[in-house]
Structures are given as C-alpha cells and as structure tokens.
Amino acid sequence: MSENHLPIGSTNLDIFSKTLMELAEQDRDVLVVTSDSRGSGKLTPFGEKFPGQIVEIGIAEQNLVGVSAGLASYGKKVFAVSPASFLTARALEQIKNDVAYSNRPVKVIGISAGVSYGSLGSTHHSLHDFSVLQAINNIDIVAPADNFETVQAIRAAVHHPRPIYIRFGKKPMPDLHAPGTHFEIGKAIQLTPQSNHYDVAFIASGETVFRAYLASQALAEKGITCCVLSLHSIRPFDEDAVLHAAVNSKVVVTVEEHCVNGGLGSRVASFLMQAGVFRPLRIVGIPDEHTVTGSQVEIFQHYSISQQGLSQTALHLLEKESVS
Amino acid sequence: MNSSPLESIPVGREKIRLLESKSILHRRALLKMIYTARAGHTGGSLSCVDILNVLYNHVMNITPENFSELNRDHYIHSKGHSVEALYAVLADKGFFPFEALDSVETYGSYFIGHPTRRVPGIEQNTGALGHGLSFAVGMALAAKMNGRNDRIFTIMGDGELAEGSIWEASASAANYRLDNLVAIVDRNTLQISGRTENVMAMEPLDEKFSAFGFAVREVDGNSISDLIGVFENLPFEEGKPNLILARTIKGKGISFIEDQVQWHHHVPTDAEFDTAMLELDEAEKALGD
User: For chain B, how big is the Rg over CA atoms in Å?
Assistant: First the structure.
C-alpha cells in the first residue's frame, strides 16, 4: 500500500502562517517575532500584510525569546517563531526562566522540527525538545499531526493561559480527521473506531501519526485491529486516552519524531508502569546514536518510522506476546 | 512607610537629604535581611541600592496602587542576585511590610534569593544573568506599539555584561530606537572571583555601548544628587536607548565591606553586623548636621 492514498493536504507550516494571518486580522495584539525566519516560517506574506505586527530580531534566539516574554507581559499575543532545533536548545534558558518560570504565555513555535531538515544534519534537528521541555514546569507541548490539528492548535494557542510550545515540520501532510472532529489541547484524538478489544495500540504524535495510521490499515488487512491515537499534546498528557488504548490492547507501540529517550514514548511507558498497566511496549523514534544522513522520509524509513516498519514492529510484538 | 509625600517635594537639598536618609534605611534593612537569613548578596546589594532608591522614590511612576496597571513605568532587576536591595526598597515603598522580610530564604517563603513575581512589586523572575535587558526591550517595544510613554528601567551587573545575550538585546534596543528603555550598569568593578577586568576585560564600556547605539551617560551611582541629575535628562537622545554607566563601590556604606571581593555573598558575623549598624547610625547622624 502506498503512503499516498490518504488525501494530501498542505504543509503544517503553510497552514500555520495562513492561520496566523486570520488571527492577526482579527486582533492587533497578535504578534509574530522572528529570528531571520520569516522566509523559512512562510511568514513573508504576513510581514507584508501586517508590518506593524511582526518583530524581526535577527539571528539571536535568546533575545527572540526574552523579547517575546517582555512583549507578552504587555498583553501581546506573541508567536515566537524559529527553527525548533535552535529555539529549544540555544534559547532553552530563556524558555525556562523568562517564559515558563515567569509564566509569560508566549507561544513558542518550533518550525522545521524533528528531522525536517533531513540531510542538513544534527545541528538542524530537534530530537531533544519534548525531553527538555517536559523537564521544565509550566509549558505545554504540542505536535500537531495534520493541517486540522495545526489550525486548531494555533487558534487555541492565542488565548492559551499558559506558555505553550508547538512544533511541526514542512512536508505536506495527509488529512487524518473527519470534519467536525473535536480538538482540545491536552486531549488525544483517536483515529480508529472505539472498541474494547484491540490487538495493537499505536500512540503517536506529529508527522509520524499518519504513518501509524497507515500501518493500522495494513494490519487490518491481516485481521489485526488497532487503536491509533494522535497524542498531539505531550503536555498536558491525556492519561485517560492512553489508559483506554493500552488497557484494551495486547501490545503498545509509541511513535515520535524525537529521540527515544525522554519523549512521548518514555512518558507513555512511565505512565503505564505507574498506573499498573503492563503491556509489551516498543518506543519507536530516533535512537540514541548519530542520526543517519538522509531526507526526513529516508531517516524515518531507516528507523522503521514507516507504514512497513511500524507494521513489522507491531507484528513482532504480537508474536512475542502470543508465545509468552 | 509609603513614600508618596516624598515625590511632591521639589528637588533640592531637603529632598536629597531625605533620599540619603532612605538609603541608610535600605542598607540597614538589607543587611538585617542577610544577617537573619544567613545568606544573600551583600556587596552587590549595597552597591546598587542608591540607584534603586532614586528610581523608586524619585524617578519611576511605580506604586503599590498602580502596580496592577500596565500603563506606568516598569522595572526589571536583571542583576537578580542583588535581590535584598530590591526587597528593602519595595518594603519601604509599601509593597509589603518590612516584617515579611524575616522570612527571606526560609522554607516555603515567597521571598527567595532571587526576584520572583510572587513577591508584590516584582515584575519578572530573574536570577540567571543576561536575561533582563531582552525582557526590557520587549516591554519597551510593546509600550511604543501601544503609543505609550511608559519607561522601562533595568539594572545589570558589570560581571553580567560578559553574557552574549546582553549584546543581542543591545543591538535590538538600538534597532528599534527604544529611547524609553533605560539600562543601568552597576559598575562596581568586582564579581565573584575578582576584578571584572581580570575575569573578562570588557572596557571601554562606554565606547562599547555607544557603538551598539546607546546614548551613554556616566554617573556616580552612589551619589543621590548625581543620580537625580542624570535621570532628569531622559531620554538622553531621541531615538536612542539610554545607558547609564553607574560607577559604584561594591559594599558601599560599610567601611570593611567596601570593595572587598569576599563580600560578594559573605554574611556578616554578629560583631560585623553590630559594627555595620553603628556605621549606619553615624552616617545618619552626619546627615542631620
């Protein structure tokens, strides 16, 4: 089965910039702050239409976040936009102190997240952001899976009362959600029909979700039933949805565009262990090694973040489960 | 203790004397705080307390009554470790009773060893160095966007100037022509491990900040009258952020603490505390002469 049979939408990045235009039109306090990132953030049209609502900081991520916090203290609804790799490493102390600790509700937007930059290499990858931000109190963490989740997350962020980090990539994403789907920060969305008996629970976030969904369809052809959760919010963590998925499944596979240490998978595993729910579990992500060179898709395939790779991972887990 | 009557007194000998008297009160309070808590940043608090006194009691439009409003002046304590000076000035200004300061750095207290917004009168959590100026730039920019004349003040330490983020923030302050931003350097020439120029040579600071686009003024940062004078000329140049290089003495006001590197965060012994209080009594008497 091809990965192309889902209807292909826009890039989440495009949708982000379009949504911001709508929001800026309605509210003059909506500001975009960039670090020479208006091109890479698809924000050039925004800057042309709303020159008074875009603040250029130059390539200076620490100042980007500090200035954004100061603007937010004046009631501005600030989207601080920069590549996720630099934003959440170079400016981590500003995110920690100026934003999270000081409770300034800046919308920290990590663009070209994960391995979106592909063969540009590890300097440009953000495989640490879920991990470091989860260790910092008072900042929500969201990785939307498709255009719908992106629109909803950006709209919700405007009036979000706490600091929030939203990250996404720059590849066109298939539409995963039926019209009228409910979106709420902190509430996972189940992509498969509700049931009390699944063979496999896929718990995924961001641009890996549709791959998990395709794996579930491939497995369905073999008579294997799956629960696929888009856990777009790493924080707040939807305990109920994860519990439902795990309790009603034989095995659990988590999927993320992030290092396997300290991300979504670690969070799920930690939660399930402490909740007393013991299921065979695999954390699929980028392992703790020098990331292989390649495009995002090639890197994903290399590490089994693909329809085929995820199907096989689930099948192996199920086989081991049935033997034991 | 609310100092509103002070603001109505015209600048002159009487006002200067009253403010000098307040500085002594602030020094007593901050030393008592550090002595009681058995912790604190003694030298740096004593060097910047006169600046804070003049800011809060003469220059800035910030009171406990208007603090919840946006449209007023704002102060960010970038050199967050010198929080005891800020606590003393805020208590004197009426933000909270002096007695609250008995809890500084005790279990469960909001009065921790660096500024946090949980304490009335404090605008932003600081403590990690090199953060205040960026935040102040954001505030100054927002005030300009809103068509307001609110001024944003911040005090930075001189050791803090080695942080690269200070220079990122400086470039943006000039780029956005933030003449409503007033950055003050507490130039006491000492940091925790020695002379600032030996730790990291940053002079000539006036030329560096000028080159970054600030309008720079130098002042004796422990002289109430000089400080009053320099703030009267804000903004120094239209369209340029303001930088005040405040020449101060670390530990100012207590003879055996002045300009001594070990007093960065040394806590007075009983005898040292008693001597310090006596010196402040003498200074107060001298004011009355």
Answer: 18
**Amino acid letter, A294:** G
* Contact between residue B167 and residue B85 where contact means Cβ atoms under 8 Å apart: no
The beta-carbon neighbor of A67 closest among B124, B143, B172 is: B172
Q: Partners of A203 in the beta sheet?
A: A229, A254
Q: Is the N-terminal amide bond of B204 cis, ω within 30° of 0?
A: yes
Q: Which residues, in sequence order, are CB contacts of A322 under 8 Å at separation 6+? A: none
Is CATH 3.40.50.970 what the domain over B4-288 is classified as, yes or no? yes
From A58, A70, A72, residue closest to B137, measured CB to CB: A70
User: Which residue bears the tokens 């290089």?
Assistant: B245
pLDDT value, residue B289: 64
ipTM of the complex: 0.96
Which chain A residues are closer than 8 Å to B123 by Cβ?
A: 73
How far apart CA A77 and CA A106 sit, in angstroms, is: 7
Question: Residue B6 has what pLDDT?
Answer: 75
CA distance A294 to B149: 53
Domain boundaries defined on chain B = 4-288
For residue B288, name the pLDDT band (cuts at 50, 70, 90). confident
pLDDT tens-digit series, residues B212-265: 999 999 999 999 999 999 999 999 999 999 999 999 999 999 999 999 999 999
Regarding the domain delimited by A8-174, which CATH topology (the fold level of the hierarchy) does it fall under? Rossmann fold (3.40.50)
**Interatomic CA distance for residues B217 and A153, integer angstroms:** 47
**CB interface of A with B, residues 68-127, below 8 Å:** 68-76, 93-94, 97-98, 101-103
What are the backbone angles phi and psi of residue A176, rounded to the nearest 5°?
-105, -20
pLDDT at A225 over 50: yes
Write out the two tokens for A320.
């081991």
A93: closest chain B residue by CA = B128
All residues of chain B having their beta carbon less than 8 Å from the beta carbon of residue A74 are: 70, 138-139, 142-143, 146
pTM: 0.96
Q: How far apart are CA B33 and CA B153, in angstroms?
A: 25
Question: What's the angle, vertex CA A12, arms to CA A11 and CA A14, rounded to 5?
Answer: 65
Q: If you write DSSP's letter for every residue of B124-140 in order, what string do you get?
A: S---STT-HHHHHHHHH
CATH of A189-323, one of 3.30.1360.30, 3.30.450.180, 3.40.50.920, 3.90.1170.50: 3.40.50.920
Which amino acid is it at B250? K
CA B7 to chain centre: 19
| SS3 state at A66 | helix
Q: Does the pLDDT at position B1 exceed 60?
A: no
Return the domain boundaries, chain A.
8-174, 189-323
Residue A2 has pLDDT above 60, yes or no: no
CB A145 within 8 A of CB A206: yes
How far apart are the C-alpha atoms of B76 and B92, rounded to whole Å? 18
